[in-house]
Structure formats: C-alpha cells, structure tokens
Amino acid sequence: MRFRDKVVVVTGAAQGIGEAYAKGLAAEGAAVVVADIHADKGQQVAKEIEALGGVARFVRCDVSDRDSAAALVEETTEAYGGIDGLVNNAAIYGDMAFDLLITVDWDYYEKFMSVNLDGALVMTRAVYPAMQKRGGGAIVNQSSTAAYLYSGFYGLAKVGINGLTQQLAHELGGMNIRVNAIAPGPTDTEATRIQAGEAAQDMTRQMAIKRLGTTEDMVGTLKFLLSEESSWISGQIIAVDGGGTFRL
Ligand SMILES: NC(=O)c1ccc[n+]([C@@H]2O[C@H](COP(=O)([O-])OP(=O)(O)OC[C@H]3O[C@@H](n4cnc5c(N)ncnc54)[C@H](O)[C@@H]3O)[C@@H](O)[C@H]2O)c1
C-alpha cells in the first residue's frame, strides 16, 4: 500500500492505459481522480475501483481547458484535502486523423496540440500549487516511443512532452516536485486496435521482446516514478517498450 494517504489525478483515465494506471494506484491505497472528457466510461472506472474497496471519483475535465483544470483542482482538494500526484496521460489517439504535417488542417493541428502537448502544461500549472502546499509531489507525463520515429504531428507532440518533462523538472524541482515521463511502445489498447489494426503486430518483429505491451506492463513503472523509491529521479523519459528503441 505504497500510496496510502496519497491523492493522485490521472487524466485520460476512462479507458486504456489511463484506466490501468488509475486502478493500479487505487489498489495500492491512493485516492484516485479519474479525469476525462468521457463521463460514462470515466464514472464506470471510478465505480469499479470503489467496488473493489478503493477510493476514486470521476471528474469531468478537458485538459486543454484552463477553467476545467482549475475546477478539477478545486473539487479534488475539497474532496481529499490536497494532491500528491499527477499523471498527464490524456491524448487524442484512437480517433486521431491520418494526415501529414505539411497538409493537416490548421484548426485540427491546433486542437490536437492543445490536448496532446499543452494539456500536460495546463494540468501541471493548475495542480502544482496544491502539491507545493503538501511539501512536494510527483508528475508523470505520458510520452511515446513515437517521439523517436517518424510519426507526424502525433510524434511531434510527444517530442514536446519529453522537452516539457525536462524543463518542468527544473522549474519544479526546488518545490520538491519531480517530473518524469513514460514512453510506451505499441500497447494493446482499443485505441491502438483502431489506429494500427494488424500493423501493430508487425511492429513487434523489431522488438527485443516480441509482443505488444499490455496496459499492465506500464503500471509498475508509473508506480515507481510516483513513489519515494524514485526520490532522486527527475527529468527522465523511461521507455517501456519491450526493448523496441535504441537511444544513444
Ligand atoms: N496505446 C499505445 O500503443 C500507446 C503507445 C505510446 C503512448 N501512448 C499514449 O498513452 C496514452 C493513453 O493511450 P491509450 O492507448 O490508452 O489511448 P485512449 O485513446 O484509449 O485513451 C486516451 C484517453 O484520453 C481521453 N482524452 C482525450 N482527449 C481528452 C481531453 N481533452 N481531456 C481529457 N481527456 C481526454 C480519452 O477520452 C481517453 O479516455 C496517450 O497519451 C497515448 O498517446 C499509447
């Protein structure tokens, strides 16, 4: 029960990897805020956690909207007294448009970046004062190994997430707030099935461990990065990818 008395906000927790993060943290004692734009699925995740004896609540939150982020912080601190952890996992992914950087519609591109890149900054700016009041905290951003491959605006946003992680680690380190990122490789979620279909299996041929990741594969690293076990680790991007990428 590493996270007893800890309060953690997980964005994009209505399904997929975020759902596994929320459930994994709740199973180790955290009070979890399931933050998402999808109310029905998000409420269901919170209910499932509570049915297993955990503490959770769904809060509707659009990570690209500053007012929505501020409202989430208010509701969370009122309900649980503070915030110790933030997982910036939300992204437009499963229903993402296929297009190129040189042709993508500007309005779509700006909306995409406002969620997939700026959303992590919006949430961090809203949450960090509550962490500071608790004497510190930990933030984990969700990157992707797509940051190291050609993957258009999706990969570009994840490169931004990596940079944001490194820069914010410096701005928040003096407040005892650590900022790290997880870069998953291709992971078997409904969104990946929609995005990549059969092609996802093909990608596993290039990996050291020749299978897709599972949502559960991600949870151990998340718990490590949020816990005291990683108390001197900040500004790092950890690939959880079956040995799929080399970074020199
Ligand atoms: N699945 C993979 O193979 C894979 C690999 C690398 C990185 N990732 C990253 O992991 C994260 C989760 O991926 P997934 O496969 O579970 O995707 P998913 O599409 O199942 O989950 C994303 C969640 O984010 C929510 N969301 C979207 N826009 C939002 C907004 N504006 N505000 C709040 N919530 C919003 C969605 O409703 C959804 O619940 C994403 O950041 C994705 O880029 C996924």
Automatic annotation (TrEMBL):
InterPro entries: KR_dom (IPR057326), NAD(P)-bd_dom_sf (IPR036291), SDR_fam (IPR002347)
Domain of life: Bacteria
Pfam family, one: adh_short_C2
Domain Ketoreductase: 6-185
CDD domains cross-referenced by the UniProt entry: SDR_c
Annotated TM spans: none
Keywords: NAD, Oxidoreductase
PANTHER family: DEHYDROGENASES, SHORT CHAIN (PTHR24321), ESTRADIOL 17-BETA-DEHYDROGENASE 8-RELATED (PTHR24321:SF8)
Annotated family: Belongs to the short-chain dehydrogenases/reductases (SDR) family.
Protein name listed in UniProt: Short-chain dehydrogenase/reductase
